């Protein structure tokens, strides 16, 4: 008799571990319901199908009222795909076609910018090219201006205008002092 009691006690303990503690556990233990054929439908306990947005909206659409049960645990929104049939696999003969490889870049809206090494290298090269161009333009302009002055002062091997007129200048200056 003690052996039978101990076996009963062990079975009772095992079953008590699986006894539902809340409405969520009871929903998990409920029998498999007939599922709705379309993805956007939700299965009521009595087998009716309603739209997902009608679950826990404060208005009873199922005749048994199961769409408004346990809404606190759901957070006011219907449980995702609860009572929804899995998408049916259709046996369609697959066709093979040449697919052009494409890459999709998604931008994160994190507020930070990630800079790659290629971007940094490109920035340095662009800065170097622009600085060389600026220096070249400045030197060219300075040569043009100095070339104009040198021609006037007798540079570049040409005759000096000032040297030719120096005698006349000396005579003019000396006549002013006399």
From TrEMBL:
CDD domains: LDLa. Pfam families: Ldl_recept_a. The chain crosses the membrane at residues 117-138. Residues 1-16 form the signal peptide. InterPro entries: LDL_receptor-like_sf, LDLR_class-A_CS, LDrepeatLR_classA_rpt. Disulfide bonds join 44-62, 56-71. Keywords: Disulfide bond, Lipoprotein, Membrane, Receptor, Signal, Transmembrane, Transmembrane helix. PROSITE patterns: LDLRA_1, LDLRA_2. This is Low-density lipoprotein receptor domain class A. It comes from Caenorhabditis elegans.
